[in-house]
Structures are given as structure tokens and as C-alpha cells.
Amino acid sequence: MALSAAQIYEDAFLQGLMPDPRLTVSEWADEHRMLSSVASGEPGPWRTDRTPYLKEIMDCLSPSSPIERVVAMFGSQLGKTECGLNWVGYVIHHAPGPMLMVQPTVEMAKRYSKQRVGPLIESSEEIRERVNENGAVKMHH
């Protein structure tokens, strides 16, 4: 039996009233983030328990956190970039809006976009379906 237009509208309206699940950035990453073979030496699902020291940082970047500024100072090659990419993925998926990622030079920004952000988008269906062919987030998904 086909649904009437009124029933489809009502179902969509009621679904729109449901709040988004209250995920932290680390929970989102554990559920949705895939590390590509291009960007990671260990491709496959992201596991926060592999880098537990990043959990607090990611959770402080979550909308439910009262923290307004996050500063992380620790050694290189310990996951800060991936932590930031998890945040970007979360924002695209659950809270789309303007976001600026700054790099020291235009060339470094292009390389970061191609080597890091591109694989992030390509490896996640939830993100890929929310980004257009130019890399801009579709604001009304």
C-alpha cells in the first residue's frame, strides 16, 4: 500500500522533531571514521582506545562540552591531525556550518586538503553524501 502525500509529510515532520543523537566527537569517530590506506599506516575503523590520550581533546571539541578553547601541546606524530579530522568529520555530519582550517602556506593547504581532508571525505559515506563535488558542505541535507 502506497503512503499518501500527507502521511509522507507527517512522517518526515515527526522525524525532523527528533533530536540528533548526542554523540561526542570520540564516539562519532569510533562509529563512523575510517582511516584510509592513503592517510594511515593502519587503515580501517578508527578506534579511540588505540590513542586514549586524544579522547579528552575530542570530547572537549564536542558541542555538548562547556569548553570554549582547546590547546594541545605534545609531541609530533601522535594523532593531533587525525583528532582534528575527526572533529571536521563530526561537524560535517552533525553540525554543518562554516569552519576554517589554516595552514602556513597555500601549497601546504592544498597538500593537506588532498592528502588528509580528501581521504576523510572519501572514506565515510556519511560525510561523502554531505559534501558536493567542489568540497563544500551541503547545508540542507
TrEMBL record:
InterPro entries in the record: GpA_ATPase (IPR046453)
Molecular function in Gene Ontology: ATP hydrolysis activity
Domain of life: Bacteria
Annotated ranges, domain Phage terminase large subunit GpA ATPase: 40-133
Pfam families, alphabetized: GpA_ATPase
Annotated protein name in UniProt: Phage terminase large subunit GpA ATPase domain-containing protein
Organism, scientific name: Magnetofaba australis IT-1
Lineage, top ranks: Bacteria, Pseudomonadati, Pseudomonadota, Magnetococcia, Magnetococcales
